Amino acid sequence: MAETKARSRDSGGKVGTKTRTRGSGAGMAMSRRRPAKVSPLSRYVGYALRRAQLAVFEDFFQTFADLELRPAHFGLLVVIDQTPGLKQAEASAALGIQTPNFVALVDELERRGLAQRFRAENDRRSHALHLTKAGEALLKRVLVRQEEHEARITAKIGNAGREQLMTLLDKLAGD
Question: Most buried residue, 52, 80, 102, 128, by most Cβ within 10 Å?
Answer without folding.
Answer: 80
